[in-house]
């Protein structure tokens, strides 16, 4: 075992691991477990502080409104933004749909084009693709280099390109794209840029002013917060041009029989009662992550990732996909002769939880593998015991299937 990465100083803050200390959870890229400070904050709000916001003149409602807006400011500060540019959504998927309908559609005409990368999650693919199909615009896909980064995205950008959407880090590989460099050049060319930060928000220090993107989205459940809450940053001058995505209470100004007027800014995109408990949890999750980083979680996870990679590489019948060497601690493996779900179910019998399949990234997976892959992703609660349990599970599979399932490369050499 690697010195200094045997124990996690944060594991005890997760009640699920106090109850199940033997559980090796490797699916943090899909959803992180939620630590006690986040759960406590959500419960405290619901028990003692709850009221509807932006509506009531009574003290509890005004206090809840102040809390809600303070959470917005806190989460905006987490990515170097101001509160008046951060919209609460249900997550990255809804954020991309908001942008597709309110940012892209009004600007897109037949003959125009939108560019994405091959490594996008479906949430950063399908909304753009649908609008292009409906309008008669071209949907372009930029390929990847051998390291898994987008390759020469500007070969696909021309005078009819209206928007480029790309991930900061792949949910399958963890590979990081040079988004700051790309977004800066796109802005010079007058092309809108959208960054999917769902995988990077928990791992990297984000600053939208440095990234120079026009919009950026992330989800609460991928950074130790609750499900059903996310944040969408939109640059102020771009936000001013966007019509509402949904209409209803909370975002309306005046309603008449023949027309209605709506609030401008972020509140104009938050129709209905917001997910107040979720916002409380997301703000607490941001605080939790910042505390972990202050105590060295990034270095811890990178070292632990090295241990994970070394362990996986002992098993020659598994091939690793490109990765970021632990900067985003995601490692995916495959074998054309083993269905990843079979291996996942086998490992789960001994308390090792990993994600099998195509990971909502079918174009990428179909390019890289024949039958999907098995993904391992670390969280601050992960430790060397988790990796040891994984190693034991892989050894058990190897013993049980010896001589039956060889890697394609081994067959060709024999």
Automatic annotation (TrEMBL):
Its EC number is 2.8.1.7. It is an enzyme of class 2 (transferase). It catalyses: (sulfur carrier)-H + L-cysteine = (sulfur carrier)-SH + L-alanine. Its cofactor is pyridoxal 5'-phosphate. It comes from the Bacteria. Residues 25-390 form the Aminotransferase class V domain. It holds the Pfam family Aminotran_5. GO terms for molecular function: cysteine desulfurase activity; lyase activity. Transmembrane segments: none annotated. Keywords: Lyase, Pyridoxal phosphate. InterPro entries: Aminotrans_V_dom, Aminotrans_V_PyrdxlP_BS, Cysteine_dSase, PyrdxlP-dep_Trfase, PyrdxlP-dep_Trfase_major, PyrdxlP-dep_Trfase_small. Catalyzes the removal of elemental sulfur and selenium atoms from L-cysteine, L-cystine, L-selenocysteine, and L-selenocystine to produce L-alanine. Belongs to the class-V pyridoxal-phosphate-dependent aminotransferase family. Csd subfamily. PANTHER family: CYSTEINE DESULFURASE, CYSTEINE DESULFURASE 1, CHLOROPLASTIC. This is Probable cysteine desulfurase. It comes from Aliidiomarina maris. The lineage of its organism: Bacteria, Pseudomonadati, Pseudomonadota, Gammaproteobacteria, Alteromonadales.
């Amino acid at each position: 075992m690697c010195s200094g990465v045997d124990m996690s100083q944060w594991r005890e803050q997760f009640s699920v691991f106090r109850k199940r200390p033997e559980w090796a959870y490797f699916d943090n890229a899909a959803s992180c477990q939620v630590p006690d400070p986040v759960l406590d904050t959500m419960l405290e709000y619901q028990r003692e502080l709850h009221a509807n916001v932006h509506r009531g003149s009574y003290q509890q409602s005004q206090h809840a409104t102040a809390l809600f807006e303070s959470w917005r400011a806190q989460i905006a500060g987490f990515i170097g933004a101001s509160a008046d540019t951060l919209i609460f959504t249900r997550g990255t998927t809804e954020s991309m749909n908001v942008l597709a309908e309110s940012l892209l559609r009004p600007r897109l005409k037949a003959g125009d084009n939108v560019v994405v990368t091959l490594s996008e999650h479906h949430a950063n693919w399908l909304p753009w693709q649908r609008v292009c199909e409906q309008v008669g615009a071209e949907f372009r896909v930029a390929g990847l280099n051998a390291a898994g980064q987008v390759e020469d995205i500007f070969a696909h950008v021309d005078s009819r390109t209206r928007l480029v959407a790309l991930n900061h880090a792949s949910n399958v590989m963890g590979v990081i794209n040079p988004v700051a460099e790309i977004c800066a050049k796109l802005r010079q060319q007058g092309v809108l840029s959208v960054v999917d930060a769902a995988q990077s928000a928990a791992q990297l220090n984000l600053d939208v002013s440095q990234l120079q993107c026009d919009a950026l989205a992330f989800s609460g459940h991928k950074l130790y917060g609750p499900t059903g809450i996310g944040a969408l940053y939109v640059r102020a001058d771009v936000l001013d041009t966007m019509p509402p995505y949904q209409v209803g209470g909370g975002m309306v100004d005046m309603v008449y029989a023949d027309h209605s007027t709506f609030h401008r800014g972020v509140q104009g995109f938050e129709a209905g009662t917001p997910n107040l408990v979720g916002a409380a949890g997301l703000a607490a999750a941001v605080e939790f992550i910042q505390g972990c980083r202050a105590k060295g979680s990034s270095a811890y996870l990178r070292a632990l990732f090295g241990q994970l990679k070394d362990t996986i590489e002992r098993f020659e019948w598994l091939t690793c996909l490109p990765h970021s060497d632990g900067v985003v601690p995601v490692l995916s493996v495959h074998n054309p002769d083993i269905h990843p779900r079979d291996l996942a179910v086998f490992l789960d019998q001994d308390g090792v939880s990993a994600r099998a399949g195509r990971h909502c990234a079918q174009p990428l997976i179909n390019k890289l593998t024949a039958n999907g892959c098995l993904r391992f992703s670390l969280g601050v609660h992960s430790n060397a015991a988790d990796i040891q349990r994984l190693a034991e599970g892989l050894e058990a599979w190897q013993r049980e299937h010896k001589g039956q399932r060889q890697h394609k490369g081994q067959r060709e050499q024999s």
